Amino acid sequence: MATLKQRTITSMIWSVSDRLGMQVILAITSVILARLLLPAEIGTFSMLSIFNAVGQTMIDSGFGLALINKKELTEADKSSVFFFNLIISLLFALTLTISAPLIANFFDQPTLKPITRVIAIGQIIIALGLVHSNLFTKELKFNFLLRINLISVVFSSLVGIGMAYFGLGIWSLVGQLLSRYVINTALTWYYSPWRPSLKFSMTSLKSMFPFGSRILVSGLLKEIFNNIYITFIGRFFTPAELGFYSKANVIETAATKATSTSLTNVTFSALSPYQDDNKLLRQAYRKTTKLSHFLHLPLMIWLVIVAETLIPLLLGYRWTPSVPFFQLFCVIGLFYPLQVLNLNILKIKGKTKTYLHLQILKKSLTIIAILISYQWGIIGLLYGQLVLAIFSVYLYSYFSNLLITYGFFEQLKDIFPHFLTSLLMGTLLVFLKPHFIENNLLIIIFQGTTALIVYFGINLIIKSPELFELRLILDNQIKKIITYIEKRNL
């Protein structure tokens, strides 16, 4: 258990650092680009997000997680998945290229025709490095992924900002995306010792197909419906309105999904070998749930409170219409980690059929929510997402209770103390709003400092176990860094 705990925590730190680092850089880049580009330009580019997301999911074909989940991998397994991914990427890129005029006509944006064809090339580039990344994840080598992702994000961000500065408009977003794919794939090949061999085995693919195919279908459903709101808004609202919506979503994502995605990668990789030990899984998930919400809940509540100051400070006053969108995204984001953790239990236990059925059910409910809520505009669509998020947590946790006896009410009981202390912190911030300060940056600094003092002060007084767990983790990592530096200097 000690070994598992140590591996999981170490891997989580690398993975969280990777995701947080990427999201912070992307958020900073997004802020700079928002000041250089118009909301309509960003909104127009967002219309293609669904095709990019679906393409990446199809190319991976569900075999990425199958490689990670399989206990014994052969060279035939890895090479077969590599060439299969490449074939799918070529077919998808060709389909996207042919469909470019139809996509441009659907959104009534002629600019999308050449952009779609350029983005199609990126799908092939992605396929070349997928297996290498999956192997890094399987082996818990998140330090390599951290290095690769941060380098690619930094350089691609510089490309995008540079192009925007020189007036290339929407094409700066295309340049940022494509350069990131190129750099990421190149670095993946550079750091990974594995190279594909001319071994293609249908037997290998068939052995992983039952697991991979269900993950593929559920992944496609997830990406289609994750982007269905953007597609719907892009079709029936103005590009500027879509720009406000998508920018609010991007900034909130930097705070929410970074940690949650890391939890998915780490817990799935570290705990998959122990899928038959329900007691261990339950203990690990309770600890993960408590610690993740200890950090997640106060951040979301703080962002809701400071949004009216934060958005104009980051993006400029022309982006003020996105403030209510951002606040609602943060409220929805409160429930995101629980959705991720509960779904991950299904994947670890190999219940991909149940996972798929749940995804289909949720997507059906998403369509119903859109049809009911769109008449109240984008705000109505967001309230529909909120109701759906709450219901999804209840639904997913029902199966967690069946599998490892960790159900909805026990999960709420575990995170309630952190919700209560976060709410208390948020209430105090509302009353302590510094009306005597006019500078937005100084207001954010004041509210951020106050939030940290109040939240961690309360947890220190009540002797929160998660606070001491966090301190222990940080102390151990600092010691490891010091030891590593000392060894390098000897």
* Structure classification: mainly alpha
User: Helix proportion of residues, in percent?
Assistant: over 70%
SSE string? HHHHHHHHHHHHHHHHHHHH
Beta content: under 5%
**Average pLDDT for all residues:** 82
Report, as a whole number of angstroms, the end-to-end distance. Answer: 34 Å
Largest sheet: none
Radius of gyration: 23 Å
SS field, number of helical segments: 20
Stretches with pLDDT under 50, minimum 5 residues? none
Total beta strands: 0
Apparent shape: globular
Q: How many domain units?
A: 2
Quaternary structure state of the chains depicted = single chain
Overview of this protein structure:
The protein has 20 helices and no strands. By secondary structure, the protein is mostly helical. α8 runs antiparallel to α9 (171-191). The radius of gyration is 23 Å and the shape is globular. It starts with a helix and ends with a helix. The model has no long low-confidence stretch (mean pLDDT 82).
